Amino acid sequence: MPELPEVETIARGLDTRLAGDSIESVWIGSRKQPLKSPAGVIAATLEGRRIVRVHRAGKHIVFDLAGESRPSRTRVSQTKRKSKVRRQTRQAASLQEFADRTAQWIVHLGMTGRLVVCEPAAEIAKHTHLIAKLASGRELRFIDPRMFGKLSVHLHPGGFDPGGVEPLEVSEEQFVALFRGRKTPIKSALLNQKLLRGVGNIYADESLFRAGIPPRRRAAAITREQLGRLHRAVREVLREAIALGGSSINDYVDADGEEGFFQLQHRVYGREGELCLVCATAIRRVVLAGRSSHYCAKCQK
After folding, report:
1. What distances in angstroms separate CA 213 from CA 175, 184, 216, 249, one per listed residue?
2. What are the tens digits of pLDDT across the range 207-232?
3. φ, ψ for residue 61, nearest 5 deg
4. What is the C-alpha to C-alpha distance for residues 133 and 99, in angstroms, rounded to an integer?
5. In DSSP terms, which residues pair with 139 in a beta bridge?
6. Biggest distance spanned by C-alpha atoms of the chain
7. Nearest residue to 140 (alpha-carbon basis) of 46, 227, 55
8. Which residues of 97-129 are buried (b: 16+ CB within 10 A; e: fewer)?
9. What pTM does this model have?
10. Tens digit of pLDDT for each residue in 90-116?
11. Residue 64's Cα: distance from chain center in Å?
12. How far apart (Å, rounded) are the C-alpha atoms in residues 153 and 37?
């Protein structure tokens, strides 16, 4: 699943390519799994809006939209009665009065989701679930073979909040307060999106290695000094990964279809049985809460 650096890379690329463009019409496929908001509400919210900015919130891609929505002309190929579509459109209209002419489109990529900007003549991929026709003549398509990604809209004042603290902005004192005293393994705590948002398996492993902390150690047993090192390591790893376009594991590509390069810098993640680049000890793997954790038993004591 794309983590903070991958989502940040994609959001920046989309912002460069789409900011200022407008959404003229929307087509939504027949599969309900990718939709967290009703299809009619998504379509009515997007159509007629201008894309002001694309940015990241946790592991979500957020499209800030401006302008008034208009009666939807979308083709929603879902087997539902017309009255239900009309009801969803009215729901979007009633929510609009609270949106103060602004709205947000929220995209979570899940494991295999992609957002592709392309020409209308480009072949439509098999697992395309949404196509937005843009005023520039291009199309923005959401493709997700495994359908773990989610599409929704946010129409309430204050903006979308995925919960948790932003790791690139959290102070050392805030970071220490988040984890100190918790009885769960530090790796599990790092993956808790209600505490620190955006950090996933890859970057938790890499951060713990740089901080010299084993993944199974209880957060409550970690000293103030060690938590300070971990705070610096998390920020360092995330910034390096963003600079290299993220880690291309499995299906990840950026907004231009290019792979990232941070996987070439992995020191422990995915290297079970290989020698540690620091001490030449074999990298180990342990499963915590159903997730693989990679570490060096000598460097992380």
Report:
1. 15, 14, 9, 24
2. 999 999 999 999 999 999 999 999 99
3. -95, 125
4. 23
5. 118, 133
6. 66
7. 46
8. eebeebbbbbbbbbebbbbbbeeeeeeeeebbb
9. 0.84
10. 555 554 444 445 799 999 999 899 999
11. 16
12. 6
Which pLDDT score is estimated for 155? 87
Relative to beta strand 75-76, strand 23-28 is parallel
Query: In whole angstroms, how far apart are CA 263 and each of 10, 185, 237, 249?
Result: 17, 25, 12, 8
CA distance from start to end of the chain? 28
CA 42 from centre of chain = 19
Given a cut of 50, whether residue 152 has pLDDT beyond it is yes
Q: Which residues are catalytic?
A: 2-3, 59, 291
Residue whose tokens read 């499995």: 250
Instruction: Measure the CA–CA gap between 91 and 110, rounded to whole angstroms.
Output: 27
pLDDT, tens digit, 9 for 90 and up, residues 47-72: 999 999 999 999 999 999 998 766 55
**What CA–CA distance (Å, rounded) separates 250 from 145?**
13
Q: Which of 170, 231, 234 is nearest to 200 (CA)?
A: 234
Name the one residue in this structure whose structure tokens are 């957020």. 62
Structure tokens at 205: 């492993």
Between 117 and 255, the more confident residue is 117
DSSP-assigned states of every residue in 225-247:
HHHHHHHHHHHHHHHHHHHTT--
pLDDT in tens, 69-85: 665 555 555 444 455 55
